[in-house]
């Protein structure tokens, strides 16, 4: 049965999407752990299907008071991945390379700190996206991280004109400090259907 909207996704499709993103976040957490030489942990992913305007407002709200970066997926998989880094997490991250650094707000994100953050986004995004390729054989490219404060427009553009938007929310925590960040994945309906078809899930 063809599904015409994310609102048509049943429990099976939601569970599969949850597990896919759980594995992607696991890959990103492993990459982060290697970067900072500390154990990490991931949350249970939450799959949400909401009216597009509401999903955009949530993304904008979560991005306030943080450093947020948008990665666009292209080639066989279309979508957007939003990385939301609170300043407490950035301070712990940057402290790996610059002991004693203080990052309490945007004014403390100097060139050195920004470089560490962007490199972390690149590495985690590549690890996250690579999971789609491994599971399905799809070719997945990622864009250069784009700093965003209100990403709702970019998120709406993933599924233009759609009434509903799907997103999956994971958090990754550095165990030694309890500092965490969020990854929100906004897939395009057509390509997530293609992905599920390739791994044998009716969609």
Number of domains: 1
Q: Which descriptor suits the 3D outline?
A: globular
Stretches where pLDDT falls below 50 for ≥5 residues?
none
Kindly identify the CATH topology.
Chemotaxis protein chec
Helix content: 40-55%
Q: Gyration radius, to the nearest Å?
A: 17 Å
| Main sheet properties | 8 strands, antiparallel
CATH superfamily: CheC-like
> Which percent band covers the strand fraction?
25-35%
Structural class: alpha+beta
**Arithmetic mean pLDDT:** 94
- Beta strands, count: 8
CATH class annotation: Alpha Beta
How many helix segments? 6
Which architecture would the CATH scheme give at its second level?
A: 3-Layer(aba) Sandwich
List the secondary-structure elements in sequence, H or E: HEEHEEHHEEHEEH
> Termini, distance in Å?
7 Å
Q: Would you give an account of this structure?
A:
- The chain is α+β, with helices and mostly antiparallel strands.
- It has a single domain (6-198), classed as Chemotaxis protein chec, CATH 3.40.1550.
- The chain contains six helices and eight strands.
- It has helices at 11-36, 52-63, 87-95, 111-136, 152-158, 189-198; strands spanning 40-42, 46-51, 67-75, 79-85, 140-142, 146-148, 164-174, 179-187.
- Strands 1, 2, 3, 4, 5, 6, 7 and 8 form an eight-stranded antiparallel sheet that branches.
- Strand 7 and strand 8 (179-187) form a beta hairpin.
- The longest helix has 26 residues, at 11-36.
- It is globular, with a radius of gyration of 17 Å.
- The mean pLDDT is 94.
């Amino acid at each position: 049965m063809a599904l015409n909207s994310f609102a048509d996704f049943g429990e099976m499709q939601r569970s599969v999407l949850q597990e896919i993103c759980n594995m992607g976040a696991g890959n990103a957490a492993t990459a982060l752990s290697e970067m900072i030489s500390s154990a990490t942990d991931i949350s249970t992913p939450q799959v949400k299907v909401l009216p597009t305007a509401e999903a955009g407002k949530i993304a904008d709200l979560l991005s306030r008071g943080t450093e947020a970066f948008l990665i666009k997926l292209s080639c066989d998989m279309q979508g957007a991945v939003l990385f939301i880094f609170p300043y407490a997490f950035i301070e712990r991250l940057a402290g790996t390379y610059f002991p004693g650094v203080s990052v309490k707000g945007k004014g403390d994100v100097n060139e050195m700190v920004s470089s560490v953050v962007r490199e972390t986004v690149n590495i985690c995004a590549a690890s996250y996206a690579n999971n789609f390729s491994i599971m399905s054989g799809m070719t997945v490219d990622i864009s250069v991280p784009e700093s965003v404060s209100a990403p709702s427009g970019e998120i709406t553009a993933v599924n233009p004109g759609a009434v509903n938007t799907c997103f999956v929310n994971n958090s990754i925590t550095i165990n030694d400090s309890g500092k965490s960040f969020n990854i929100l994945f906004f897939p395009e309906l057509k390509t997530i259907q293609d992905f599920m078809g390739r791994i044998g899930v009716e969609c």
